[in-house]
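Repro:
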Amino acid sequence: MASGSMSSGAPRPETEVAGPPATASSGLSDEQAVELVRRSVVTASLSGGERPLAEYLVGAVAGSASEAFVDEAGNAVAVWGAGPRRVTFLGHLDTVAGEIPVRVEDGVLHGRGSVDAKGSLCAALAAATRAPSTVWDRLTFTFIGAVEEEAPSSKGAWHAMAAYPRPDLLVVGEPSGWERYTLGYKGRLGVKLTARCANAHSAREDASAAELVVDAYTRLREWVGQDNEGVAGLFERLQLTLLGLTSGEDGLEAWCEARASLRVPPRWTCAGLRAAVAELLPGVELEFTEGLDAHRADGRTELARAFRVAVRSQGGSPVPSLKTGTSDMNVVAPHWPVPMLAYGPGDSNLDHTPDERLDLAEYLRAVRVFERAFAELAGVG
C-alpha cells in the first residue's frame, strides 16, 4: 500500500462539488446535522445507484474539508487535516431495497438507510466539520462513503484499498448503538446445492432431484449442529440459513437448486469450510460464493480507548460488541492489519427491516462521540 498523505498517491477526483453549508470555521450545527441525515435518507441509494447521495454528501462538506470529491468507483471522499496520524472512516452509501416513507415523528427519523448506515456516515461527517484546527494539526482524517457494501462486490471498499494509503487507525461506519462499539463480525460463505437427474415417472422409487437436494441440505444442517456441540456464544457458532429453493424440468431432465448461507465464526476459515462441505456432500453440485472470513479486532487499542472515553464524556457506559452479520471490516481487515472498530448510531436489529428508524437524539450523541474521539486520538481531548 502507498504511504503518506492521500493527495500524493490518490487518483484525480472524478467530480468535485462546491457550495456547502458547512465551513471550516463553524461546522455543522445540530440542526444542520439533522438535516444532513434526513436528506441523505430521502436520497435513494440502492447498490449501484449511489451517485446522487455521494454528490450530496461531498457538496455538504466541501467548504470544511481540504478535499471533497466523488472518486472513480463512485465513493464519496473527504479529507481533513495534514497531521502525521492517518485515521480513516469507511462507511457505505448503499442500502438494500424496500421503500419506507421518509418522515420525522417524535424525534425519530423513519426511512430506508437511516440506521444501515446513513446515520453513521452523517454522524462522522458532521463531527469532522466541527473539529478544531488543533485536531487536524495532528491527524489526517479520510472519510470514505463506499459504494456496493450491500452487494457481493464490495466495490467501494476494494477500490479504497487500492487507491488510498493504508490508515493507522480505521473506523467502520455501521450501527452499534451510541454507547456501544463493535469489535468483530462473523464471516459469510454462500453455497448453492444443485442436483440433476433424467426425468422419470413418479411411480418409480428413484430419488428425484428435489429429494437429492433436500437430503443434502438436511445432512448439512445436521453436520452444522454437530459442529456447534459444546460451543458457547452465538458469535462462535456456525449458522446455516436456507435462502431459496427452486426446481423444474424440461421433459428430459429434472433439476433442483437450494441457495444457503453460512455465517462463519473465527474458528473456521472459508477455505476450510468449503473443503469440509465438499467432503460431506459428494452427491450434489456445489457452488460457493461470497467467501469472507470472520474478523475480531483487539479491544485494548488506543482507538478503542478513545471511543470509550468519548462515550463516557456523553454520560454513556461503553460496551464492546460482536456481530453475527458481516461488514466491510471483513473485506479490508486482511489487507489493512491496523487497529479498527465499527461505530455508529442506531439499533442494528432494525437493519433491512420495514421498521428501520433512527432516534435523532441518539444520532446527535453519536456526533459528539465522534468529536471527542477525534480529539482523544489527536491528544487534545
